[in-house]
Structure formats: structure tokens, C-alpha cells
């Protein structure tokens, strides 16, 4: 949106034009000149802002699910939140992460291709230390992982895919499966170096240790579901039609649901001492006259007025008036 000039700025501009300090023709020329925006073809923006916002929303939910999962597994304070969602070339992503780190490579059917969850070594070893009974201290020795340590980490991160599946369930039903754990990103060539990827960075704190968890989603993998990441798609999506006869079955089931109906003769307030002193034959005076209609409550809500009487030797009430609901002002 263009800046709005104040009255003082307008007066100063008119004064400069009238005194010759500023040429009106030059101003018009500047306005007609084409504005050039620099575009880097090596950093092609393949995702729209709408799709980036959708990915951010999905992984904010993923971060909440991970917080719950890791808190239960590690029995320690865990806080995970989305800090950024960026699109960049795959080569740049590889350069941005440590040379030795924990890379969980997994596939998510029906998506065609592999995804990466990179866990900073500080975070990974804090988790490992907690699982083995330690205080959650971090010692970076990724280059010398033992088979037991690798197995424990594999099992821990395999279960994070359940949270990943749940976070994406509003868009598509995924079936993520862990393929391998790699420690050197240079040995992992998932896509071409110039392929655009979305990197979701999750700031992670475990006890006193902090680090990043990065989710790398290549454009070529998400390409088939990109339309579903648009808010326009969600607004246009039609509701599924009900099966034939389903509406009637629902109505019949609702009609059979039990509903409590009560006719209230009135109420009275007495002290606890009076209540404890009640004996047979005592009379409690209600706050309602016998000439006033009774209130009939349906499911705890006052719906009708009625008058009491006898029907076939049974105490009954006859509905005389429907109480209209009054909408409360917002």
C-alpha cells in the first residue's frame, strides 16, 4: 500500500514545485519508469505464500505432538516450536546443517520420494542420555555411534513418524516408514542440488540443552498434493453426500434418545436447622401461587408453561404456552 502523505508533506511538496526546486515533469517520468525486481533463478520460489502458511500450520501441530511425545518418553522438560519455514535449494540446506549430524530418512506413502528429519547432535545426545538414565547432558560424538546407540535412536525417532502422520491427517493420509539413519549429509543425495526444498526449523529445548530439528520436504515429493495446501482448495472442497437412507436413520436414532422432562411446582429456601427439624406433617411454603402456571423444563431448560391436573387418576400437567427463546445481544 502506498504511503499516505501528511498535510505538512503535501504543502512542502507543492512549495518545492512552485519555487522550482523540484520539476513536476521529472516526477511524472520517475512514476512511468518500469520497476525491476531482482530474481535469482538458483533460488526458484516453487511454493506460494499460501502453501507456506499451510505447511507452517501443519508443523506447528507436529511440534505440539512432538512436545507431548518426547516429554513422555524422556520424562523431562521439553519445549518444541516452529521458528521458520523457508524454501531454498537442497544444496544450501545440506551446507546449513552440521557436517556430522543425525539424519532420519523416511518415505511417506502415497508421496513419491524421501523426506529428511535432521536432529542436531546436541539434542540427539541429550535424548539418548535421558533414555539411558542420565540427566540429559549432551556429548557430541556422532562419528562414533555404537550399534546399541544407533538402535535406541532408531526406535525413538521411528515413533515420531506417528506424530508426523497425525499432523498431516487433515491434508492427506500418510503412511511414513523409516528407511535409515545417516550421520553425514554429504553421503545423502536425495534430490538434485538445485531442487527446491521447504525446510521447517523447530527450536527444541530439553532440560537445559537447546538445538534445532529440521524437516526437509522436497518440492518434487510434495508436488502432487500442493493444491491441497491452498486455502482456496479447502474453501471449495464439497462436503461428502450422505448415503441413501442415512439421514432417516439418524433421525430415528435421535427420536429414540431419552429426554428428561420436569414440571416444577415451585421452590423454597429454608435453613439447615429447619431442614434437620422437619417431621411428618410439616408444611413447606413454596414461592409460587397456585394460580400461576407451572414451568416445564426439558433437558434442564425451561421450555413451556403448564397447568396441573388429573388424567386417568394420575397427576398430570397440560401444556398451555410455549416459551419463545430470546436471542441475547452480542
Automatic annotation (TrEMBL):
<dbReference type="InterPro" id="IPR036429">
    <property type="entry name" value="SpoA-like_sf"/>
</dbReference>
<dbReference type="GO" id="GO:0003774">
    <property type="term" value="F:cytoskeletal motor activity"/>
</dbReference>
<protein>
    <recommendedName>
        <fullName>Flagellar motor switch protein FliM</fullName>
    </recommendedName>
</protein>
<dbReference type="GO" id="GO:0009425">
    <property type="term" value="C:bacterial-type flagellum basal body"/>
</dbReference>
<dbReference type="GO" id="GO:0005886">
    <property type="term" value="C:plasma membrane"/>
</dbReference>
<keyword id="KW-0283">Flagellar rotation</keyword>
<dbReference type="Pfam" id="PF01052">
    <property type="entry name" value="FliMN_C"/>
</dbReference>
<dbReference type="InterPro" id="IPR001543">
    <property type="entry name" value="FliN-like_C"/>
</dbReference>
<dbReference type="GO" id="GO:0071978">
    <property type="term" value="P:bacterial-type flagellum-dependent swarming motility"/>
</dbReference>
<dbReference type="InterPro" id="IPR001689">
    <property type="entry name" value="Flag_FliM"/>
</dbReference>
<keyword id="KW-0966">Cell projection</keyword>
<keyword id="KW-0975">Bacterial flagellum</keyword>
<keyword id="KW-0282">Flagellum</keyword>
<keyword id="KW-0969">Cilium</keyword>
<feature type="domain" description="Flagellar motor switch protein FliN-like C-terminal">
    <location>
        <begin position="253"/>
        <end position="323"/>
    </location>
</feature>
<dbReference type="InterPro" id="IPR028976">
    <property type="entry name" value="CheC-like_sf"/>
</dbReference>
<dbReference type="Pfam" id="PF02154">
    <property type="entry name" value="FliM"/>
</dbReference>
<keyword id="KW-1003">Cell membrane</keyword>
<keyword id="KW-0145">Chemotaxis</keyword>
<comment type="similarity">
    <text>Belongs to the FliM family.</text>
</comment>
<dbReference type="GO" id="GO:0050918">
    <property type="term" value="P:positive chemotaxis"/>
</dbReference>
<keyword id="KW-0472">Membrane</keyword>
